[in-house]
Specification:
The chain folds into two domains: about 1-20 and about 60-70 and about 260-275 and about 310-400, no CATH class; about 75-250, no CATH class. By secondary structure, the chain is mainly beta. The chain is about 10% helix and about 30% strand. The chain is globular and about 90 Å long. It starts with 6 loop residues before the first strand and ends in a 5-residue tail after the last strand. The strands form five sheets. A seven-stranded antiparallel beta sheet has the order 2-1-16-19-20-6-3. It has helices spanning about 170-185, 260-275, 285-295, 295-300, 305-310; strands at about 5-10, 15-20, 20-30, 35, 45, 55-60, 75-85, 125-130, 135-145, 150, 160-165, 195-200, 210-215, 230-235, 240-250, 315-320, 320-325, 335, 375-385, 395-400. The longest helix has 13 residues, at about 170-185.
Amino acid sequence: MAVNIPIRLVQENHGLIPLDVTTLTLDVDRSINPRSIPGQGGARGAFDFNFPKAVILLEGIITDDELTSIDIGEKAVATVDFSRNQSPIPASLFDTGGNDWTFTADGLTNNSFSATGGAINYRPPVLTLKDTTGVEHKIYFIKTSTSAQGYDLGSSGKYHVRIHDNTSIVSAATIAANLVTLINSSANSNALSSKFTAERVTSDASGEANEMVQITMDISGDEANGLSPSWSVVGGAPTATPRTTFFTGGASSSGVFKNMSAGDKVMHLYGILNNSNDSGVGDSFFTAMTTVGGIAGLVGLGLPSNKEKRGDYIIGIQIPFNSTIGSSDGDKYVAKNFFMPTGRHETVSNKHPSKALDASTKPTNTNDANDRAFIKGAVTKATFVQIGGEPLYQFNIQFVPVDKIA
């Protein structure tokens, strides 16, 4: 395959399962059925309603790792969207207007750290981040004219981000910028910046630029996946929180076929395909539900968390190809991923290979069929055949592109 990048199955939690594919078949059936027209000398006519059916067939070999070793460890990613308040129903489903994160009067009076003893004399919102070792890092969102962000303000011994400058609440973009600066600051190298990196991105709910913070673990692994980031206040529950998604997509190399035998790999795929669930409406819905109902409530009902139940669902595929478009540095080819240009708003130019993304691009949102880093869909059939009693398996996988899965 292109530049030694394999075909990869994409899981809902952004995990990637690489496959050694020997034969790739891309099949499209336009569903056109021509019929002879009476009295027209055998001339044929047909209706083309643009009802294509597609299937992707993969054939290949699964071997022990000493024969094939592919290391694609993934770092977990979370988001904090200051352009939207958290809601039982994702705000993106009903609100396309401005709805920046706002606070009630609770916590907006005397919002500052106490100057003595490091105590807090109000109820500020607190963002808790867990690193890959499970250590909690708390960030207090406060009212202060002294410092936009930092550590140990007023001898508090705590991290803070300014949300109010003693005159008014600062903008969502400024709050996001303050949080990014705090996390990335070299002054916090022993805690925050050695565990996380952050950047401002465009909100996928509101479309507002620079109002959502994407936080990435510095170390690959699935230890951080789960119930962080979380919000609280000192002495009670928060009355309003930004739209927040948990850390997902982290995978150690052993979780993506590294250090596995051929049998381990087959068992991994066989188990996933025999019992896995797609969340359908996306991670934000489950995050909102757990925020409103409480994680303890879900556990009390005996229900597994979203990470435990739905993260392994195979929801897409990345198929690299060699392209001469956009190649640089004297190389003939650049590796890009196939994409599926479906939808009413696709134009002629949007279907051109120049719109394909680099093969190393990771999916941003596995519930978004328009994410061109992969082709969304589902595995409809898989067959694994052990060859000659050896630790060697042949596989045939049938993958069907699907834009919406319930």
